[in-house]
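Input record (Table S2, row 450):
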Amino acid sequence: MERGSFGSKVGIVLATAGSAVGLGNVWRFPYMTGENGGAAFILIYIGCILILGLPGMVSEFIIGRHAQANAARAYDKLSGGRPWKLVGYLGILTATIILGFYAVVAGWCLQYLYASVVGQLSGDAEYVKNYFVSFSSDALKPVLWGVGFVLLTHLVVVRGVRSGIEKASKLLMPILFILLVIIVIASCMLPGAIEGVRFLLMPDFSKVSSKMLLEALGQAFFSLSLGTAVLCTYASYFTKETNLLNSAGQIVVLDTAIAILAGLMIFPAAASVGVSPDSGPSLIFITLPNVFQQAFASFPFAGYFIGVMFYALLVFAALTSTISMHEIGTAFFTEEFNISRPKAACIITVVASVICVFCALSVGAYKELQLMGHPLMGFCDQLTANVMLPLGGMLTCLFVGWYVPKQVVRSEFTNNEQVSGRFFSIFLFAVRYVCPICIMLIFLHQLGVV
Ligand code: TRP
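Output record (tryptophan complex):
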């Protein structure tokens, strides 16, 4: 079967950035930062991105582009039959679980898009807060929106790589960026916003803990879509000319910039309307409607328009991410079981929808749906981000560092000596020693061993 490939250079970076940029940046990053005390968390997060995320991303690119196959087969192909295939399976499992709970939040965004179009979100800060609580604890609505989102993803994935994934990303990513900048400015001009800016920029290192290290690491991997071989699958659609290190660098910078912009959008506004930064997953939903109303109080139409545009773009950003989580399983089932793309996509859609239903209920109508003291949704979130992703990332680094023949790694890194290999030895050192050891230490520290 002919494998799809991305059409243009810009398309490659944008589609991969489309996978990276999503609710992880706009929803998860602010709420994690809020729960972990602000600026110090951000510094540690940036450290994790640069030291562990960048080499991890290049590693996945190397495996994917060299093997030109789905996640499981790619690891298999490069290892000559050792059980590294399991890392690919782990990635597919992780991505599908993430798809399940991610769709819940994406469904919330759909509901907010609808509510902002029909003007249901206008009222004071108390009203906005209650709106979220009453909507999310409805037994039906969050479930329907969430499953609806999985189906939407399904539709795009079935259309294939070039026509679906690439086109959507190319158009929408730049618009999202511009809109974010506008909202950041509006938010920072609210009365009392300065407190929120301070929260983001003045680190208080007395709050650093092992839990915070692990959460920064998990957030870094989550935000970069790392550790599930999603990037490996995308890299299998790269061309021979794609410069892997440059592309990874661009994506990392863009992804981090958008996360920080999202922080600058949320915290000043939260400070202004008296929403506590550690409100958890509801943070952006109980803060943003206030910005659209209050910052644009003298231009209500602009506030309305920007609000609607924002939720629409958030939905698209989420969609370019869910597409990537869906694609990894779909590519796997299509190629390994020789079934049609639509059939393979159905398998993933059904599994993810089931997870989505239970997760949505666990934070809404059926709070008894708990695992180890967390609502099922929080459990899936923490299990994947704080354990499965770093584990997948660590194994991938070890694989590229120690098992894939060095000349294969080098020739992918340098496009067969067509581009500079100046950073190759640093890269190799990072994937052989720095990444595995750091991730291991963070794990052990969290378990209380060191
Ligand atoms: N990175 C995306 C975000 O920030 C989420 C995401 C997409 C993801 N694909 C992934 C996370 C694969 C982990 C693994 O919203």
